[in-house]
């Protein structure tokens, strides 16, 4: 019984440690049949007094998920992978077209409008936050 109580408390505190990261307006873009790469956007808000470091994401529906930043470098649009995203206390960061975004690569199956994608955000301490993102049309 003590073991189960300890396990429950450990899980509760682990989940609670990033409960203060609010994720809003999250979605994944639908892709045409046969396309294996999509993108996810969302708004992230750190409601705490401490920095939150997001170090990755994963989904059973994709082989890999990487954080990227699109930027204009000398007149050319480039996309660069990022190892982590630091969200300062009380800061909000928007992952949106033309800027920060999650690249979802190696789609295992199809991805159509009204589907949902389960994504786990991974933090620097190894804890995770589970998301369910709706799939939206490529063109609104």
Written account of the structure:
The protein has 140 residues and is mainly β. It has a single domain, classed as PCu(A)C copper chaperone (Immunoglobulin-like). The protein is built from one helix and ten strands. Strands 1, 2, 3, 4, 5, 6, 7, 8, 9 and 10 form a ten-stranded mixed beta sheet that branches. Strand 1 (21-29) and strand 2 form a beta hairpin. The chain starts with a helix and ends with a strand.
List the helices and strands and how they pair.
Layout: H1 2-16, E1 21-29, E2 37-46, E3 52-58, E4 62-73, E5 76-82, E6 85-87, E7 92-95, E8 100-107, E9 116-123, E10 128-136
Parallel strand pairs: 1-10
Antiparallel strand pairs: 1-2, 2-7, 2-8, 3-6, 3-9, 4-5, 4-8, 9-10
Query: Taking all residues together, what is the mean pLDDT?
Result: 87
Question: What is the rounded Rg?
Answer: 16 Å
How far apart are the termini?
53 Å
Q: Given the structure, what is the number of helices?
A: 1
| Helicity range | 10-25%
CATH superfamily: PCu(A)C copper chaperone
Shape: globular
Total DSSP E strands: 10
Order of helices and strands: HEEEEEEEEEE
The helix/strand class is mainly beta
CATH architecture: Sandwich
Largest sheet: 10 strands, mixed
The CATH topology annotation reads as Immunoglobulin-like
How many discrete structural domains? 1
List low-confidence stretches.
2-18
- Provide the CATH top-level class: Mainly Beta
Approximate strand percentage: over 45%
């Amino acid at each position: 019984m003590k073991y189960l109580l300890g396990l429950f408390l450990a899980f509760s505190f682990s989940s609670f440690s990033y409960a203060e990261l609010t994720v809003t307006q999250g979605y994944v873009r639908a892709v045409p049949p046969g396309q294996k790469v999509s993108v996810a956007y969302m708004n992230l808000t750190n409601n705490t007094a401490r920095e939150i470091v997001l170090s990755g994401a994963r989904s059973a529906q994709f082989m890999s998920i990487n954080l990227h930043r699109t930027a204009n470098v000398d007149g050319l649009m480039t996309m660069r992978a990022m190892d982590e995203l630091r969200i300062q206390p009380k800061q909000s960061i928007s992952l949106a077209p033309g800027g920060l975004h999650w690249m979802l690569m190696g789609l295992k199956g199809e991805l159509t409008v009204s589907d949902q994608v389960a994504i786990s955000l991974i933090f620097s301490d190894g804890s995770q936050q589970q998301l369910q993102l709706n799939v939206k049309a490529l063109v609104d």
